[in-house]
């Protein structure tokens, strides 16, 4: 991933950064010129052999950035065309100035007439951060044509049709090969549909003064490999009791594998001791798979009492089921007063009997989040940031909303993980994440939830790099988890 800033902003916050930059003495047209220059530099860097460039411009300042790029490309003797889409009367003041400069340079320009001119690279300069509803008419037709073209698209600031704050796709959005974002990195580029639409993401601050970033406070922070340094080295006189005892509760009939994955993940992430409470029928399988796990058969909730008494952290939910056995075990866990990671079926049960706690960690995927909030999955995905905030409000503690651009909301604020890959959309991955989280909590790591998401995603990327994304198994992550918790 190219170097990106750690701070993530909403569209409104980015507009405030623009205002502050202008107040510092930079003109709006200077910023537009710098944006067009940065985008043209990226285009030449990524596609040095591209000779035919078509720039699709809209009526706002995003279109003005496109006019600047087109003029620069024309001055480099490239075959450039500006294709105006929609009503450009009137253009914004800065975009009109950029259009006049392009006209004076004799850049060829024509209006959209239902088809795209041939190009080696298309530039999407249709819409920037202000879009909040699906596009229609010529705009929708132009985006559809771009996506059918089979040629790479460079998106300026963000792909047209992507909502800047939420990462939701507003109708059909541009499928970009690369996107360059300016001044403030938009939150929606890194979560929801953003990672799938933006392609390779770059950033340019347009050389605005550092004082511009003194306000407003960013909406979220981007997790980075550098964050792992807080894990640190172990003391040379450490022993297994120093690093916490994790109890995994789950593994109903036919689901022992979920508990096994969670338990082994906790071991690989450094927990000193890991116990598993599961159906008695599963003990032999679990111990033969991973002899380091201390496995206990539990038939009733009462059987959990001595195990809960010894645990520092309880991770509940993997393959737990939603029958009487699972519900009884969850009830005992909730009554234990232990530090909890709540996942999988425990979340589904929690949705039927909601409660609020200050110190637990909930790790839902979008389907589980929808059940916890009583809304459709589509509503969760349409605004993942609002969903994770509502989950914390209703249930307390810390919340991880899994998916592309996983979100972590704790008392430290909102964090976003830009790592991970589609190969991780496979059974058992969530169990592994919860196990890592339990282990880091047991080791008293600061911001354990964010660290767990980061370790898990980076391990998934490392595993995929060895054998590819398709066919990736949750257990493939174990060796790489161990590497990441030993920075």
Topology:
Elements: E1 7-9, H1 11-23, H2 28-46, E2 52-57, H3 61-75, E3 79-84, H4 93-104, E4 109-111, E5 121-125, H5 137-148, E6 153-156, E7 178-182, E8 185-186, H6 194-198, E9 200-204, E10 220-222, E11 245-249, H7 256-268, E12 273-278, H8 283-289, E13 294-297, H9 305-310, E14 313-316, H10 324-335, E15 339-342, H11 345-352, E16 361-362, H12 366-373, H13 377-382, H14 384-395, E17 398-401, E18 407-410, E19 413-416, H15 429-442, H16 448-467, H17 478-484
Parallel strand pairs: 1-8, 2-3, 2-5, 3-4, 5-6, 6-7, 7-9, 10-19, 11-12, 11-14, 12-13, 14-15, 15-16, 16-17
Antiparallel strand pairs: 1-10, 17-18, 18-19
Helix pairs in contact: 2-3, 2-4, 3-4, 7-15, 11-12, 15-16, 16-17
């Amino acid at each position: 991933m190219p170097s990106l800033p750690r701070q993530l902003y909403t569209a409104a916050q980015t507009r405030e950064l623009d205002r502050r930059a202008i107040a510092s003495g930079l003109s709006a047209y200077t910023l537009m010129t710098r944006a067009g220059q940065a985008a043209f530099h990226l285009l030449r860097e990524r596609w040095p052999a591209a000779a035919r460039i078509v720039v699709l411009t809209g009526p706002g300042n995003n279109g003005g950035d496109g006019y600047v790029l087109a003029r620069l490309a024309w001055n480099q003797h490239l075959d450039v065309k500006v294709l105006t889409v929609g009503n450009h009367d009137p253009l914004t003041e800065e975009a009109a100035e950029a259009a006049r400069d392009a006209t004076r340079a004799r850049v060829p320009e024509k209006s959209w007439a239902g088809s795209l001119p041939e190009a080696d690279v298309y530039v999407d300069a249709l819409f920037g951060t202000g879009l909040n509803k699906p596009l229609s008419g010529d705009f929708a037709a132009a985006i559809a044509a771009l996506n059918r073209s089979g040629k790479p698209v460079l998106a300026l600031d963000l792909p047209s049709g992507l909502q800047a704050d939420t990462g939701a796709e507003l109708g059909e959005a541009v499928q970009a090969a690369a996107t360059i974002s300016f001044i403030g990195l938009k939150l929606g580029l890194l979560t929801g549909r953003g990672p799938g639409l933006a392609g390779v993401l770059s950033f340019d601050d347009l050389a605005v003064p550092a004082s511009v970033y003194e306000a407003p406070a960013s909406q979220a922070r981007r997790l980075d490999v550098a964050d792992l340094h807080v894990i640190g080295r172990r003391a040379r006189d450490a022993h297994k009791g120093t690093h916490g005892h994790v109890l995994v509760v789950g593994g109903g009939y036919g689901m022992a594998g979920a508990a096994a994955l969670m338990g082994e993940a906790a071991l690989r992430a450094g927990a000193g001791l890991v116990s598993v409470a599961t159906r008695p029928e599963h003990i032999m399988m679990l111990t033969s798979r991973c002899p380091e796990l201390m496995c206990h058969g539990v038939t009733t909730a009462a059987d959990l009492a001595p195990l809960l008494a010894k645990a520092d952290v309880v991770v509940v939910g993997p393959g737990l089921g939603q029958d009487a056995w699972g519900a009884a075990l969850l009830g005992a866990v909730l009554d234990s007063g232990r530090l909890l990671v709540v996942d999988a079926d425990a979340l589904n049960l929690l949705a039927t009997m909601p409660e609020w706690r200050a110190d637990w960690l909930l790790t839902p995927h979008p389907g589980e989040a929808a059940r916890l909030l009583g809304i459709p999955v589509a509503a969760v995905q349409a605004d993942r940031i609002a969903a994770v905030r509502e989950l914390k409000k209703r249930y307390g503690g810390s919340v991880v909303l899994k998916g592309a651009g996983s979100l972590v909301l704790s008392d430290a604020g909102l964090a976003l993980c830009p790592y991970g890959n589609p190969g991780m959309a496979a059974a058992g991955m969530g169990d592994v994440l919860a196990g890592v989280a339990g282990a880091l909590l047991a080791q008293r790591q600061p911001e354990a939830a964010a660290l767990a998401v980061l370790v898990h995603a980076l391990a998934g990327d490392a595993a995929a790099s060895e054998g590819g994304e398709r066919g990736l198994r949750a257990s493939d992550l174990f060796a790489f988890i161990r590497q990441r918790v030993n920075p």
